[in-house]
């Protein structure tokens, strides 16, 4: 459930006056997502999404995210296009929060990711990387390697309440991953959270890439590692190398990987696994019982981390 902030009819009417998008026809909260409050908005001009930015998004970063989306959409990537108000602003205030309207994208996200989704996903990710290359402003990845130790420090004390011995195991894993982390790979703007619920499909083709609020300037291959974690494990935590091979082939059909990117896939995947493990662990510990939002299981990423830690080479990912 992700409607943290209620929007009254009067406040909405006043807000929509700022835009030139026709008259309101329908408005409802969207239950999915955990980070921001999202509403679907229908006007006489069409369908839109209204987002109110909540806890984790730093308002100072919003112009960068919206600018990136505008840049990518202009290059025909199927991502939401921020709608500008009459005065040209793409961010305004609603119900005490910073808010934006973006275009609505058709399609549905795959509840059960299959092999057939993975090649189009890889292609779309590579297109995103290429299309973003000439977006000049940069954004440091707050949830990249430099952020992992400080994040762990904020939840280490409670890790063992989730699983006995988890704190010490994570401490050792972080040491190993950070020591082996590559710093000389090709970089640019990455999505950094391209999970199945952020990718819409229609008739077997990708129709939407959403949720750019973790995007940052970082290693391209790290973005692939995020996708390998999010798309290529089965419910029993076994790694599906057929999905991984399809994803990597799809990616390389658009942007071939450098040798160093291929060779470092095991550690990049460990890093991506620990990143989601840590944010989930933090949320697990800090979300009060009875909160409306569903907490995500940190241990699902502990299982993934263990797989990647025993991977020896790119061959373990189907290359
Ligand atoms: N541009 C869009 N077009 C169509 N639907 C959208 C769009 N943006 C968001 N949605 C809908 O809103 C839901 C939540 O959006 P989103 O994933 O961005 O929320 P969030 O709280 O920021 O997410 P997350 O928890 O994944 O970080 C999506 O699953 C989708 O149903
Ligand atoms: N994709 C993240 C949640 C929000 O970005 C996760 O599954 O932990």
UniProtKB/TrEMBL annotation:
| Enzyme class, first EC level, given as a word | transferase
Look up keyword Kinase and say if it applies: yes
Query: Does the record's keyword annotation contain Transferase?
Result: yes
Which reactions appear under catalytic activity for this entry?
L-homoserine + ATP = O-phospho-L-homoserine + ADP + H(+)
Give the UniProt keywords, A-Z.
Answer: Amino-acid biosynthesis, ATP-binding, Kinase, Nucleotide-binding, Threonine biosynthesis, Transferase
Pathway, per record: Amino-acid biosynthesis; L-threonine biosynthesis; L-threonine from L-aspartate: step 4/5
> Aminoglycoside phosphotransferase domain: from which residue to which, for each copy?
27-257
Q: Which Gene3D superfamilies match?
A: 3.90.1200.10, Phosphorylase Kinase, domain 1
Among the GO molecular function terms of this UniProt record, one is: homoserine kinase activity
InterPro entries recorded: Aminoglycoside_PTrfase, Homoserine_kinase_II, Kinase-like_dom_sf, Pseudomonas-type_ThrB
EC number of this enzyme: 2.7.1.39
HAMAP family from the UniProt entry: Homoser_kinase_2
Sequence similarity: Belongs to the pseudomonas-type ThrB family.
Listed name of the protein: Homoserine kinase
Q: What is the lineage of its organism?
A: Bacteria, Pseudomonadati, Pseudomonadota, Alphaproteobacteria, Acetobacterales
Q: Which gene encodes it?
A: thrB
């Amino acid at each position: 459930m992700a409607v943290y902030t209620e929007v009254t009819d009067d406040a909405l009417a006043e807000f929509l006056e700022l835009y030139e998008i026709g008259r309101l026809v329908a408005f409802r909260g969207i239950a999915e997502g955990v980070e921001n409050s999202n509403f679907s908005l229908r006007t006489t001009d069409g369908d839109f999404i209204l987002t109110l930015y909540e806890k984790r998004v730093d308002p100072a970063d919003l112009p960068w995210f919206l600018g990136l989306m505008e840049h990518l959409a202009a290059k025909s990537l199927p991502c939401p296009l921020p709608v500008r108000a009459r005065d040209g602003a793409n961010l305004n205030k609603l119900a005490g929060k910073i808010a934006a309207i973006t275009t609505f994208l058709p399609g549905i996200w795959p509840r059960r990711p299959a092999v057939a989704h993975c090649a189009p996903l890889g292609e779309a990710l590579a297109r995103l990387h290429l299309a973003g290359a000439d977006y000049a402003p940069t954004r440091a990845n707050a949830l990249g390697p430099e952020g992992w130790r400080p994040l762990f420090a904020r939840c280490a004390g409670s890790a063992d309440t989730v699983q006995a011995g988890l704190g010490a195991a994570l401490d050792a894993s972080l040491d190993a991953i950070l020591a082996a982390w590559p710093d000389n790979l090709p970089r640019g703007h990455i999505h950094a959270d391209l999970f199945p619920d952020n990718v819409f499909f229609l008739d077997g083709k990708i129709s939407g890439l959403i949720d750019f609020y973790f995007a940052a300037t970082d290693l391209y291959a790290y973005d692939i590692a995020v996708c390998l974690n999010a798309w290529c494990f089965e419910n029993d935590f076994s790694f599906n190398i057929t999905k991984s091979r399809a994803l990597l082939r799809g990616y390389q059909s658009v942007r071939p990987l450098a040798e160093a990117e291929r060779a470092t896939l095991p550690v990049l995947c460990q890093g991506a696994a620990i990143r989601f493990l840590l944010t989930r662990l933090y949320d697990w510990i800090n979300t009060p019982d009875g909160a409306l939002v569903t907490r995500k299981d940190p241990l699902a990423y502990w299982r993934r981390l263990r797989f990647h830690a025993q991977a020896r080479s790119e061959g373990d990912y189907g290359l």
